[in-house]
């Protein structure tokens, strides 16, 4: 078990990392993820020139998970001091590059965008939002984005998760974001996903595959400091590399090691 996007145990976002010696069938990986019962568990298998990686929540397979990728890279780098770069390939064929960056890990992700999409009033009410600056939708991750004005209000949101699930049915989650009022950070966010995982994800790399370019354009800067203001909190250094790629850099702490007897 690894706490990602933090240098302190029991902060950031915990992920399970299972290093496989041979492929496992989907049903067994789903059972293991349900047994571990973290927001995501990554299953990593070495191939000739890359590591295959798949992500499962306790409920379903997830196409992409940033914090579990960071956790997997941290484990592999700690196991092999001569390893400085890793190519991960997801189930969909997406190639993710991880590089050792001192004690941190730098991840290259696709630079995703958003398209315009209105958010139902019932969903806004369930989250506790009465005014929005912008809304959008990311097709790759099936996620809604809602920008609000006040980061302090963002930190105080107390959503009704049952009402959220009833308000919309074709998404995997909602990220609410705001420009930070703290000079240490550029923007803040929280990610709610009662449709496909837990109620709130502590720190979410996947949402930053589109939040990075979104805020880079708004703030007119390529390098940004992101703060996910969940109860556990998390800090991400993000950068737009080019039109197709962004980078997410963060720390991680291994908190549990063990062997799964299956």
From TrEMBL:
Show the coiled coil region(s). Answer: none
Q: Which domain of life is it from?
A: Bacteria
Gene Ontology cellular-component annotations: cytoplasm
- Which positions make up the signal peptide? none
Annotated InterPro entries: Phenazine_PhzF-like
Which residues carry out catalysis?
40
Q: Which UniProt keywords apply?
A: Isomerase
**Annotated NCBIfam families:** PhzF_family
Family under the similarity heading: Belongs to the PhzF family.
Q: What is this protein called?
A: PhzF family phenazine biosynthesis protein
């Amino acid at each position: 078990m690894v706490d990602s996007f933090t240098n302190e145990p029991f902060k950031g976002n915990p992920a399970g990392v299972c290093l496989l010696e041979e492929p496992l069938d989907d049903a067994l990986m789903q059972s293991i993820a349900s047994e571990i019962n973290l927001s995501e568990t990554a299953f990593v298998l070495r191939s000739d020139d890359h590591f295959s990686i798949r992500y499962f929540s306790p409920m379903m397979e997830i196409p992409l998970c940033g914090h579990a990728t960071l956790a997997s890279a941290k484990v592999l780098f700690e196991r092999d001091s001569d390893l400085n770069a890793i190519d991960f390939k997801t189930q969909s064929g997406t190639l993710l590059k991880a590089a050792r960056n001192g004690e941190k890990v730098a991840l290259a992700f696709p630079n995703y965008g958003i398209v315009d999409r209105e958010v139902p009033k019932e969903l806004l009410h369930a989250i506790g939002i009465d005014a929005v600056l912008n809304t959008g939708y990311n097709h790759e991750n099936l996620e809604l984005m809602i920008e609000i004005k006040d980061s302090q209000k963002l930190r105080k949101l107390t959503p009704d998760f049952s009402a959220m699930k009833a308000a919309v049915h074709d998404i995997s989650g909602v990220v609410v974001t705001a420009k930070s009022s703290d000079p240490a950070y550029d923007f803040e966010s929280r990610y709610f996903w009662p449709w496909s995982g837990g109620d709130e994800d502590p720190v979410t790399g996947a949402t930053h595959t589109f939040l990075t370019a979104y805020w880079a354009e708004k703030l007119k800067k390529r390098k940004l400091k992101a703060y996910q203001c969940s109860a556990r909190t998390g800090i991400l250094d993000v950068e737009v590399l080019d039109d197709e790629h962004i980078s997410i850099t963060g720390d991680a702490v291994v908190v549990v090691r063990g062997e799964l007897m299956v």
